[in-house]
Amino acid sequence: FDADRDAKKIHSACKGAGTDEKKIIEVLSSRTSEQRQQIKQKYNALYGKSMEEVLKGDLSGNFEKAVLALLDLPCEYEARELRRAMKGAGTDESLLIEILCTRNNKEIINIKEAYKRLFDKDLESDVKSDTSGSLRKILVTVLEATRDESQQVNTELAEQDASDLYKAGEGRWGTEELAFNVVLAKRSYSQLRATFQAYE
């Protein structure tokens, strides 16, 4: 890997009439996220301008979106997607769930920091104002980034959690959200699998 060579390839792909999209794909799709960050820095150092801005000016449509997404760190991309999910009328709750409920604690912290850096806004505050009820409670708990991340499974705890969830949900009218919140947002993914098996 040579960031200098790759930055020069991107520059030549955007120089003159027409853009060599094949060359852009060749460089960016064969590099890790970390390497793409180095290419961006090298491009800026060599040409005194942002590689993203140059590519924005030369590309369009879905290809532009894909290339710009490749230039983001994963946490930045996810922060942008979360912002998009909450911007304007309506909230894409499925996207909030997909991103926030599948990330580990470190990833959640990185996403929150990227969100603050990119939009000068607090992710938790935006989630609170764009969601309501049980969904708001569980997403805010997930954003605390305090999920147990051990791989060990406690079978007794799984059976107790399954029983608590049954009593809180199907077992009676209404639901006791706290039981769901604690189990779904705090337990490790391994522990959750054991709980779901015990619930069946």
TrEMBL record:
GO molecular-function term, one example from the UniProt record: calcium channel activity
PROSITE patterns: ANNEXIN_1, ANNEXIN_2
Keyword Oxidoreductase: no
GO biological process: calcium ion homeostasis
Family matches, as InterPro entries: Annexin, Annexin_repeat, Annexin_repeat_CS, Annexin_sf
Keywords: Annexin, Calcium, Calcium/phospholipid-binding, Repeat
Listed SUPFAM superfamilies: Annexin (SSF47874)
Signal peptide: none
GO CC terms in record: calcium channel complex; cytoplasm; nucleus; plasma membrane; vesicle membrane
Matches recorded under PANTHER family: ANNEXIN, ANNEXIN A13
Stated family: Belongs to the annexin family.
Comment on protein domains: A pair of annexin repeats may form one binding site for calcium and phospholipid.
Designated name of the protein: Annexin
